[in-house]
Design brief:
Blueprint lengths: L8 H15 L8 H14 L5 H9 L3 H11 L10 H18 L5 E7 L5 H13 L5 E8 L2 H9 L1 E3 H4 L4 H7 E3 L7 E4 L1 H6 E5 L12 E6 L8 H14 E9 L12 E5 L2 E4 L6
Parallel strand pairs: 1-2, 1-7, 2-6, 7-8
Antiparallel strand pairs: 3-5, 4-5, 8-10, 9-10
Helix pairs in contact: 5-6
The protein binds S-adenosylmethionine.
């Protein structure tokens, strides 16, 4: 019979403080059950007696366990062309504008921050391919704190039920259906993969990019953060965006009263505010 571990107040508070300090993810009282169920399996695997022992392990500075713990605490729900109006706006407004603006360098830099299993950056890449000619240098940086989802994104293999609702033309052009044992999966076309650089990155840490970005997608990530963390993050995005750059956020993530560095220009689409230098 499986041991049922008790998650007491002390350990619950330790664990949610740990995840907050490390990733910015704020967990309210209602998340006790989630933490309990996501970690119980781990305690069994490590043959620990209780949550207090697990907290000690994390407190000892074990980096591998911190990674496992962080991966377990993230919520990775995503889909291809999620909030499709963003991709329409990207195709019809943002990319045509940036192509005029950047006609001399023919270079575009896009960031999918909190990319989860890759559906978002691949959707961006498919949209870019509809509008931007092949002789442009377009790179998409796709990052997530969760090392497991970044690996999945890199592989670019998806169950057919994740892609079946997609536009037929896109499916034909960008997915290769598996055979034999892989008959229920499809592989992303390498042309799209080559446009994307996948990296594990904690948004709370330093960022590697040197040049300015033209577009940032950070959707359905900051809903898990508190207001001060959101403010810091969006101000950093503003610092890393080209003066004519764009920011896409999730449907429930308005920047009102969070930062004044952006102007709302569409449905959860923002441009960097022009009145400030930088
Ligand atoms: C709900 S998913 C959203 C995926 C995608 N952007 C979308 O909208 O479909 C949120 C992602 O944010 C990531 N995340 C949470 N905290 C993070 C942090 N501090 N740094 C980087 N990624 C983080 C999670 O691992 C998760 O994959």
């Amino acid at each position: 019979m499986k041991t049922r571990f008790e998650l007491g107040d002390r350990e619950f508070n330790f664990l949610r403080q740990k995840v907050f300090n490390h990733s910015g993810i704020a967990m309210g009282d209602e998340k006790r059950q989630l933490i309990h169920s996501r970690l119980s399996k781990r305690l069994r695997k490590l043959s620990l007696k209780n949550f207090a022992e697990y907290c000690q392990l994390l407190d000892s500075g074990d980096e591998d366990e911190l990674l496992y713990f962080t991966n377990a605490m993230t919520t990775n729900l995503t889909s291809f062309f999620r909030e499709n109006h963003h991709f329409e706006y990207l195709q019809q407004t943002v990319l045509p504008y940036l192509m005029k603006l950047k006609a001399d360098t023919r270079k575009l830099r896009i960031w999918s921050a909190g990319c989860s299993t890759g559906e978002e950056p691949y959707s961006i890449a498919m949209t870019v391919k509809k509008v931007v000619p092949d002789n442009w240098d377009v790179k998409i940086l796709a990052t997530d704190i969760d090392s497991n989802v970044v690996e999945t994104a890199k592989h670019g293999i998806y169950k057919l039920d994740r892609i079946n609702g997609m536009d037929r033309e896109l499916l034909k052009k960008w997915f290769l259906k598996g055979r034999g044992g892989n008959h229920d999966k499809a592989l992303i076309n390498p042309v799209l993969k080559e446009m994307i650089i996948f990296k594990q990155l904690n948004l709370m840490h330093d960022w590697p990019m040197k040049g300015l970005l033209d577009v940032i997608f950070c959707r359905n990530v900051v809903i898990y953060f508190d207001k001060p963390t959101q403010t810091k993050l969006f101000d950093r995005y503003a610092d890393h965006l080209h003066p004519e750059g764009y920011l896409f956020v999730g449907h429930s993530e308005a920047l009102f009263k969070v930062t004044e560095r952006f102007d709302l220009i569409g449905n959860t689409v923002y441009s960097k505010r022009k009145t400030r230098q930088g």
